[in-house]
Amino acid sequence: MRRSKLESYEAILEVLVKKPLTVDNIAYKTTMSCTVLGRYLDFLIKNGLVEERFSDKKTLYAITERGIAVFKAINFQKYLQKITKSIRAIDDALQVIPIISKRASEEEEEAENENY
Questions:
Q1: pTM
Q2: HEC secondary structure over 42-91
Q3: Domain covering 5-66: architecture
Q4: Fewest Cβ atoms nearer than 10 Å: which of 13, 22, 23, 25?
């Protein structure tokens, strides 16, 4: 299944949270082609979420403070979506429980009346 741009940006930020990496390492860890990854990195750099660091013969890409804040916000949003689903399930259960309890009570009363 193909990722959305947001999911791709998130995947890049996620691998860079741990440590700065080369394009090849990011491509491997995110399973993206270097061509596509290059476009995404350009966008992230232009928006101040990732920065280039030059060392020896390598160019490393590192997440910035702003990138970390965006990554945390995305993760928090996902967390809230999970909680929302759980709350909906609990709410549905709370609405069904009284109905089930009422039916169970009625069935018990019918059973008691049949015994007499």
A1: 0.69
A2: HHHHHCCCEEEEEECCEEEEEECHHHHHHHHHHHHHHHHHHHHHHHHHHH
A3: Orthogonal Bundle (1.10)
A4: 22
